[in-house]
Each structure stands twice: as structure tokens, then as C-alpha cells.
Design goal:
Number of helices: 8
CATH architecture of the largest domain: 3-Layer(aba) Sandwich
Strand content: 5-15%
CATH class of the largest domain: Alpha Beta
Shape: globular
Helix content: 40-55%
Structural class: alpha/beta
Distance between the termini: 29 Å
Oligomer: single chain
Strand order of the largest sheet: 3-2-1-4-5-6-7
Largest sheet: 7 strands, parallel
Number of domains: 2
Radius of gyration: 18 Å
Length: 259
């Protein structure tokens, strides 16, 4: 299927590795020029070189942080009129809410709610004026299946989802959609980081937890990042203009509900 987005421009936060990188790679292979924003220069430059070699399109690295005004300004300077916006940020390490301070909560909100809302604010009006825009937020299945050790993520990401529910109904008549992707377990650095945060002295090993999580999923495996990237690319396509305000699980069937 031709997604109809060749020649478009995408601004992608948190796309130098993992699921964000998979989204950037898939969009680039569809002919989209991509600008990747990451806090780590070496990683983002290496990923952009890899994407450019694989796709032949322009891949521009930007060193910046979605939580800061300077980071967002640098991103928009490199890609001032994006047709596609991807918001993605690492969640905090698992823990117990009793151990977190107010600063921990504010940091979570900045990364997973307020930062993405700001990037949307800075880009959505231009998209509506140009009559094309696709905004995708990578959140987590934890907004539907709350995990106690992920309370920071549960809360901040749910705030973003609530914001999107309202705004997305105002933009769709201008051919601008806003949707959230809710990944379950994927074979990614983020998943390994999550499991490492769950390890306890004398408890189960990393390998034991890794294998058990796959076995407990109805698909009996972890998702592949390229599967996630393909889903993201479709939501960014010209064919997805009637899909907005949705929270789409990509989790191998692990969510147990009917709705």
C-alpha cells in the first residue's frame, strides 16, 4: 500500500532508539524526511546516518530535550513546519510511590505530559492551516492496565491521553489527527530497562522475568519494533484521516477487556 506521505516532513522526539527509532525508519522508507530529537548526540547522529543509508531520505539529528524550551526550540528550528509529529519519552524507573518526591512527579509530568502538550501547541495550528497533520504519542498500556510500580508513568501518561481526547475532536475537520499508541511488551531497550528496575536481591533473575513475561502474553512472544513502526506509519498516512482521539493497544492481546 502506498501511504501517500512521500515528501512529507516528520519531527520525532525520542526516536534515536527503540520504538521511536522503528517509527522513524518506517516513515523514512515511505519517503518522509525525518528530523530526530534526542538528548544523546552520538546515538541520534548514528541513527540518522543509519536511516539515511537505508532509505535515501534526509535524516536530520537534533540534540535536545522535550522537557525544555531550548530543546523544543532547537527541534522546531530544524523542522519548522512538520506534517507529522511523534512524541515519545522514556518512562521513569519502576518504584514505590512512597519513595518519590514532588520533584519526581514534576519530572514525570514534564517528560510524559507537559512536554508533548507543548510540542503539539507549537505545531498543530500550522498543520491545520496546511490541511494535513498527523500527531502520534507513544504512551503505554499502563493507561489501561495500571501497574503499581509504574505509578509515575500511569499518572503522567493518562494526563496526556485526557488532553488528546479533547483536542483531537477539534482538529480532525482540518485533516489533523491525534492518536496515542499503547505498546505492551516489545523487544526493546525500554523493556530491558523496566525489567532491570524490577530486580531484587535474591529474587528472580533477568532471564527468568524476561521469559515469563513472554510466556504470559497470549502471543507467547515480545512484539517486534518494526511491527510497531508499521502501525505508526499507517496512522501517519493519508488513509488514516478518519481515525482520531484513539488509544490503540499494540500488545499481543494482553489487555483482558472487551472494550
Amino acid at each position: 500500500m502506498d501511504l501517500g506521505i512521500a515528501g512529507r516532513k516528520a519531527l520525532l522526539f525520542g526516536a534515536s532508539r527503540g520504538l521511536g527509532k522503528a517509527c522513524a525508519m518506517t516513515l523514512a522508507r515511505e519517503g518522509v524526511d525525518v528530523t530526530l530529537v534526542s538528548r544523546t548526540r552520538e546515538t541520534v547522529e548514528q541513527t540518522c546516518a543509519e536511516i539515511a543509508t537505508a532509505s535515501g531520505v534526509r535524516a536530520t539529528p537534533v540534540v535536545g530535550d522535550i522537557t525544555t524550551e531550548a530543546g523544543r526550540k532547537a527541534a522546531l528550528a530544524a523542522c519548522p513546519e512538520p506534517d507529522i509529529l511523534l512524541n515519545n519519552a522514556d518512562g521513569p524507573m519502576p518504584g514505590d510511590f512512597r519513595d518519590w518526591t514532588r520533584d519526581d512527579w514534576i519530572a514525570a509530568l514534564d517528560a510524559m505530559m507537559l512536554g508533548p502538550i507543548e510540542t503539539i501547541r507549537l505545531t498543530v495550528d500550522g498543520m491545520m492551516a496546511r490541511r494535513f497533520g498527523r500527531i502520534v504519542n507513544i504512551v503505554s498500556r499502563s493507561v489501561k492496565i495500571a501497574q503499581a510500580e509504574l505509578a509515575l508513568s500511569n499518572s503522567a501518561r493518562s494526563g496526556l491521553v485526557g488532553f488528546v481526547a479533547g483536542l483531537s475532536r477539534q482538529t480532525v475537520e482540518h485533516n489533523v489527527t491525534i492518536n496515542n499508541l499503547l505498546p505492551g511488551i516489545f523487544d526493546s531497550d525500554a523493556q530491558r530497562r523496566h525489567i532491570n528496575g524490577m530486580l531484587e536481591p535474591g529474587g528472580k533473575s533477568f532471564d527468568d522475568i524476561w521469559k515469563a513475561r513472554a510466556a504470559s502474553n497470549p502471543a507467547k512472544r515480545y512484539g517486534r519494533p518494526d511491527e510497531f513502526g508499521a502501525y505508526c506509519a499507517f496512522l501517519c498516512s493519508e488513509h488514516a484521516g478518519f481515525v482520531t482521539g484513539q488509544n490503540i493497544l499494540i500488545d499481543g492481546g494482553s489487555y483482558p477487556g472487551t472494550y
